[in-house]
Amino acid sequence: MIQEITNFSIPESPSCMDISKEFLAIGTLDENVFLYSQPFQSKSNETILQNHLFGVIDLSINADETQIVVSSLDNYLRIWDIDDKKLISEIQCDAFANWKVRFYDSSIVVTSGEMGIINFYHVDTKERIKKIETDPIYYSCSLQIHDQLLAVGNEGGFLYLIDQNSQKKSIKPHSKPIKTLLFMDNNKILTGSEDGLIKLIDLEKFEIIQQFRGHKYGVMDFCKINEKSFVSCSTDRTIRVWDVNQIYSQKHIQSMNDKPGVISGIRYKNDQIIAAHDCGIISFYAI
């Protein structure tokens, strides 16, 4: 059974989130990033990173937890030093080319956005060092990286995999936009879509090997629990826990029945599910 342990609220609407061993970052539509150190439940551990004009649309913490990259609707990427809480770099992108952003390695960030274009930028020089085109008809609405293998999901329901040599292959696992992606291991990736379905794809065979049913509406986000299970959230306002070998979820909870809005992001850390509700409430659940 999934049970809420505690929650706190922020005065803005969350749009994205990321988590690492020591930090939780929540981006908002009101131009700020709320950064928390352990324990995440304590508001006393809160720092606010400001000046992301027109709203934050995505963010990512790097592997060694020293920097966070923030993408906003003013078409800029801003890289912050986490320890000093100082802005260290600003990179201007093409219009609407930065819907999603991830660290590729310690010195390179990757964006995806309009017309299916993937851009690579150097953090220090701020120069674009590579551009990869996918499908120009659709914008890219999800992005994940695993050992320098890029996975991009687009508005048309297509998944693109791009290797270190910029070689591409694609598959269409969904009828609607792919909103979220998750590498389960080196050989498998999960895709979640506005069609309400989650699918597991074998990366060697490049085919769908499992389909998960339970969400009534679009799947917004998910996060890995361990090698065999993951947690998801949806616009149907449910949080579901899944076993990769079972079609239907093991556990679920109907969240925030007394509050407006939906769950915009979900993460798992320290045996707890952390859910960001777009009404500004951040909830912690035990499973």
Automatic annotation (TrEMBL):
InterPro entries membership: Beta-prop_Vps41, SKI8, WD40_rpt
Domain Vps41 beta-propeller: 142-282
Repeat in keyword set: yes
Keyword vocabulary terms for this entry: Repeat, WD repeat
Gene Ontology CC annotations of this record: Cdc73/Paf1 complex
Ranges occupied by WD repeats: 49-90, 212-245
S-adenosyl-L-methionine keyword on record: no
PANTHER family found in the cross-reference section: SUPERKILLER COMPLEX PROTEIN 8, WD REPEAT-CONTAINING PROTEIN 61
Identification of the protein by name: Vps41 beta-propeller domain-containing protein
Organism, scientific name: Paramecium pentaurelia
